Amino acid sequence: MAGDINSEIKLFFEDPTVPLDTSKECSVLKFLLCNIYTCFGKKIDSNDGDLDMPFQPLWAGAMCVFAGIDLLAKFLKGSDAQTRNDNSGIRFKEYMDNYMPGTNGHIETLYQLRNSLVHSFGWYSEDKDNNIYRFRLSRNGQLVDAQNNNIYMVNILKLLDEFAQSIASYKNDLENDSEGTLKSNFDNMYSRYGVIEYGLEPQQGSTKSTTILADIGYGNKYSVTSPDSSGAGW
Fold first, then answer.
1. How far is CA 216 from the centre of its chain?
2. Cα four-point dihedral sign 135, 140, 145, 147
3. Are 16 and 33 contacting, i.e. CB atoms less than 8 angstroms apart?
4. Measured between alpha carbons, how far is residue 104 from residues 41, 91, 164 in Å?
5. Disulfide: which of 114, 134, 141, 155 matches 66 by Cβ 3.0-4.6 Å?
C-alpha cells in the first residue's frame, strides 16, 4: 500500500466535533460532514439545540449527503472509473445496499433523487426505462413515501441518519478487514479523495492577500486566502 493505511483511516474518519485545524490537512469526509450539519441547522459538538438559522439550505444539505455517499462508494470499491460495469451509479447503489439497510426497497428512488438534485438542481428525474420521478423533500414521515402522480416524498433527516450510521459501519468493517481488500481499495482512493487543504495560497507575484474566515456552524472556522480582496485568481 502507498501510505500508512492506519494513519490514513484515522485521519479520514476523524471526529467532526474536533475543531478544525487550518494548519493541517483535513479529512474530506470531516469537512463534508461539517457542511452537511450546518445546512441542516444541526450542532454536532453538543446536545443543546439546533443552530440559530433563519433559513436552512436543505437542498444543499441533501446534495452534500448524496456527495458523501458517492465519496464513500469510491473508497469501498477502490475505483472512480466511469465505465459500463464500474461507474458512479453502480457504486452508489452498492454502498447503499451494503451500509444503508434502511434504504432497502428505495435505492433506485434515492438514486434518481440524487441525479435530479446533483445534475439538474431540480426535483424531476427519469430512469432508463422512462419511469418518471417527481420529488418533494420533507423533515417528517418515513424515508420514502410513494404518492400519486409519480411523486415521492423523501424525509431528508432520515436519509441523513442512514448516512451517518453507514459511516460507522463502513469504518468498523475497514478497521477489521483481515483479508485486506477493503483497506487496499481505501488506500487506492486516498491520495485523490482523502484529504484537502483549507487555504488557497496567494498566486506567485501577488503583493497582497485577503483571508476570509467562514464559520461552519460549530465554533469551528476555516480560512481561505485569495490573491486580492476581489478574489481574482481563484
1. 15
2. negative
3. yes
4. 27, 15, 16
5. 114
Which of 61, 78, 60, 75 lies closest to 28, judged by CA?
75
CB 177 within 8 A of CB 184: no
- Which residue, among 94, 54, 57, has the nearest Cα to 74 in the 3D structure? 94
How do residues 175-205 score in pLDDT, each as one tens digit? Answer: 999 999 999 999 999 999 999 876 545 445 4
pLDDT at 89: 96
For the chain, give the number of residues. 234
Q: Is the pTM of this model over 0.70?
A: yes
- Long-range CB contacts (within 8 A, 24+) of 171-174: 171/9, 171/13, 174/9
Q: Region 11-34: what's the mean pLDDT?
A: 85
What pLDDT shows up at residue 51?
56
First to last CA, the chain: 34
CB 185 within 8 A of CB 20: no
Q: List all residues 6 or more positions away from 43 whose beta carbon is below 8 Å from its beta carbon.
A: 37, 49, 50, 51, 217, 218
Q: How many CB atoms lie within 10 A of CB 69?
A: 25
Task: Tell me the CA distances in angstroms from 222 to 38, 120, 200, one per residue in order.
Answer: 14, 29, 11
